[in-house]
Amino acid sequence: MSVPSAVKPDPAPPAAPKPPRRRVSSYLRSLSQRRRRFYIALTVVGGISLLGFALNFGWTHVQSYRFSRWARFGEEALARADVRGATLWATRLNEIDPRSLSTAKLLAVYTEASGSPDAVFWRARTAQLEPGDSAALFAWARTAVRHGQFTVADRALSVVPEKERDVLAYHSLAAAVALGSGRPGAAEPHFEACVRLDPVIPAHAIDLAGLRLRIGDPVRAEDARRTLEAFASQGGETRILALRALAAGLLLQERDSPGALAAARELAAQSSATSDRMILLEALQ
Q1: What is the pLDDT of residues 95-121, one digit of tens each?
Q2: How does pLDDT run across 198-227, given as a tens digit for each residue?
Q3: Average pLDDT, the chain
Q4: How many angstroms separate the CA atoms of 237 and 261, rounded?
Q5: Of 154, 152, 146, whose CA–CA distance to 170 is shortest?
Q6: Cβ count near 239 (within 10 Å)
Q7: What is the dihedral of CA 176, 178, 179, 181, to 10 degrees?
Q8: Residue 44 confidence class, pLDDT cut points 50, 70, 90
Q9: How far is 225 from 188, CA to CA, in rounded Å?
Q10: pLDDT > 60? residue 57
Q11: How high is the pLDDT of residue 267?
Q12: What separation, in Å, do the N-terminal and C-terminal C-alpha atoms of the chain show?
């Protein structure tokens, strides 16, 4: 019979190790180093950002100063009728900021002074950069009329607010657009408004009488003729304007050829303009 072996007792659980002090101090040291590196990196990034902001602000300030200075030089060149100088400064301004209002204004004045049709584009750009400015819209329409672009002028006038249309600039331009577009009947109310708004200037009454002489019924045409003859009895520019309207109206009516010829001869004697000489040639034919 075998003797049972003695039962070994269960080993005692190992005691929990004490946290070593070296590990804690090393962890704290690495945490401090990481924090120090973070603050250093934050300082570097902040310094670079601040430097970039300062450089950008300084460069913007320099560009703004150069832009305003060159714009002043361009305006002075235009005032001196220095086309070459105005072209130089306008080109530089356009290179810096082609969408600037100052650039558009300078180029509009320069191209208009040089007689370029590009003035219509720059007047339109100025009006676009100054939304709601009636003066810019009137300048756009006036330049378009000068270059015979009546559709563009009509578009510019259509943007003028209703409350700002009952002024002399609007009605005179609208009358010119109506005449240039072949709608003389639409020009009459605008000429009437010009006479109402500025009755002192005889040119408005002469324009209205000349229009009525060309398109009015016989009674109104005869009344317009008497009005023009009364203005033609005056002197200076008023006489020339009245003779021009009288001769052109009588020629268009084809009712009084001797009267048209007499008015055309008197006009040619008073004015040396080529257009007035052409009226005389037409009357002679």
Answers
A1: 776 677 777 887 888 788 778 898 999
A2: 999 999 999 999 898 888 788 888 898 888
A3: 78
A4: 20
A5: 154
A6: 18
A7: 120
A8: confident
A9: 16
A10: no
A11: 73
A12: 162
CA angle (183, 185, 188) in 5-degree steps: 120
Q: Which two tokens stand for residue 198?
A: 């500025």
Q: What is the CB neighbour count within 10 angstroms for residue 137?
A: 27
Q: Give the pair of three-digit tokens for residue 269.
A: 């004697």
* Share in percent of the chain as helix, strand, coil (round to 5): 80, 0, 20
**How far apart, in whole angstroms, are the C-alpha atoms of residue 37 and residue 12?**
47
DSSP 149: -
Q: Which residues contact 257 (CB under 8 A, 6 or more apart)?
A: 250, 283
Instruction: Let me know: does 267 contact 250? Beta carbons within 8 Å.
Output: no
Task: Please name the amino acid found at residue 162.
Answer: E
In the block, which residue shows the tokens 């002090």? Answer: 21
Sorted by sequence, the CB contacts under 8 Å of residue 102 that are 6+ apart come out as: 67, 68, 71, 93
Inter-residue contact 231 to 242 (CB < 8 Å): yes
d(CA 122, CA 125): 5
Looking at residues 48-69, what average pLDDT do you find? 61
CB 105 within 8 A of CB 94: no
Q: How many residues comprise the chain?
A: 285
Rounded Cα gap, residues 259 and 282, in angstroms? 13
